[in-house]
Amino acid sequence: MPTTAGRKKGSPNDCNVQDAKLERVRAHIRSHHSALIAFSGGVDSSVVAMLAKQELGDAAVAVTVNNGALHHGEPENAAATAKAIGIRQLSIAFNPLTVSEIKHNDPERCYYCKKLTFSTLRGLADELHLNTVMDGTNASDLNVYRPGLRALKELGVVSPLLGTTKDEVRSFARTLDLPNASASSSACLFTSFPYGTIVTKKRIERLRQAERTLQAIGIARVKVRDHNGFARIEIGKEDATAVIKHSSAIAEAFFKLGFTYVTLDLEWLRSGSMDFALSSAKPNSSRHDEISGR
Question: I need a surface site. Which of 181, 217, 221, 259 has the fewest CB within 10 A?
């Protein structure tokens, strides 16, 4: 049974509400009898994997998909987290750039990518005689631009955390003593390109190396956006001093990677910044609404 170690302090009523929500998620998972979990190693999928392991035992299998656009170290971190959970983990890889809408970074790219990914996982679940495919989508994901959610619905993917917010999922993770309970969320590197940009393996690797340059000076939370010759760096405001201190070395490293200009985004690190152009095209939208929604 899960321990209460590491749980945030709160009123007894708060704890009772959390316990009741967690039990509902457990019951939802248990009702499917067996499951393949789409496992990135992030906090959401880790909560689903841990609960599936506890409720379904060996009838739960975690599968990590490497689509060629993961950040440095993500496959290794996923493997370590799966080991800590004690769940069987499989890893598969494929190249989504064979799909035109993905390669050309269509505004609906996430839909096509999820459709390809979860169709593959559905086939694997059938091979393993597992009843369902589960993922870590939570209620907070419904508040941002996520065309991939449509693909999940079409394919019958089960999202046990859909009734809980991201903060509640993190609270579950602490209750379950997961090692990544406080880990930052991280979208794949496809999200670092403007829509309509042709994505290549070379450009993805350039972004991966650019982010490693910043991580090497101690900046853990970073996103580099590739605007063709421009590199737009998103970091937390608290890391601005480190970037300024190492600005010459950062610029030199980025120039060697093939960027012509290196910029620091003064709106800092945030999710969905490539979606602003889509939102601003809608009637009655405003910059403030876009930022508050991301």
Answer: 217
